[in-house]
Amino acid sequence: MSETAEQVQEQEIDLAAANEILDKYQGMQGALMPVLQEIQDHYGFIPEPTVHLTAERLNVYSSQIFGVLTFYAQFHLEPRGKYIIRVCMGTACHVKGAGRLGDTVKERIGIGHAETTEDLKFTAEFVACIGACGMAPVIMVNDATYGSLSVQKMNDIVTKYQEMD
Ligand code: FES
After folding, report:
1. Does any domain span residue 25?
2. Is residue 121 in a domain?
3. Residue pair 141/84 in contact by the 8 Å Cβ criterion
4. Nearest CA to ligand 1 atom 1
5. Does residue 61 sit in the same domain as residue 102?
């Protein structure tokens, strides 16, 4: 059975990988950003204990690191879903009905912007232009792009991912 977001948050985080990452950057200038990126790549998000470890090892305050993490949208302090559904809400997509695609995500999966399902299968993000306006309205699921979507096609995509592990 897969773990819920809450269980992942509460479970003890194995800091061995974070220590190994920090070992690589020991004594280097400007190490904070690459360290945080590698920690996120490894854990899928930035677990709070790794923030305190990083602070200790790089000799900065945890509060400074939390400041960086909340400033840069690429960092996530909470576990995220296996499938990240990005619904473009840029102008071209908006005028072609992106709002209804977002509604479909809410209705079918039960999550809105920046929310993750309890089973950690899906995270939804309603984002600005993703650079594929010619195919508006557009969504991405992880690295796959889907364009010229109707609500029906969106429903089919949701069904496809719901049926996947
Ligand atoms: S506005 Fe959606 S891809 Fe550009």
Report:
1. yes
2. yes
3. yes
4. 90
5. no
In a domain, 125, yes or no: yes
- Output the pLDDT for position 94: 97
Q: At what angle do helices 16-24 and 48-58 cross, to 10 degrees?
A: 30
In a domain, 77, yes or no: no
Q: What is the CA(61)–ligand 1 centre distance, in A?
A: 39
Please tell me the pTM assigned to this model.
0.78
What parts of the chain have a pLDDT lower than 70?
1-11
Domain containing 127: what range?
83-163
pLDDT at 8 (0 to 100): 59
Asked if 140 and 161 touch (Cβ cutoff 8 Å), the reply is no
Q: At what angle are helices 48-58 and 62-71 packed, to 10 degrees?
A: 120
Residue from 133, 145, 148, 149 whose mutation best tests the ligand 1 pocket (most atoms within 8 A of CB) = 133
pLDDT at residue 1 in the model: 47
- From 49, 71, 93, the end of a domain falls on 71
| Pocket mutation for ligand 1, best pick of 127, 138, 139, 146 (most atoms within 8 Å of C-beta) | 138
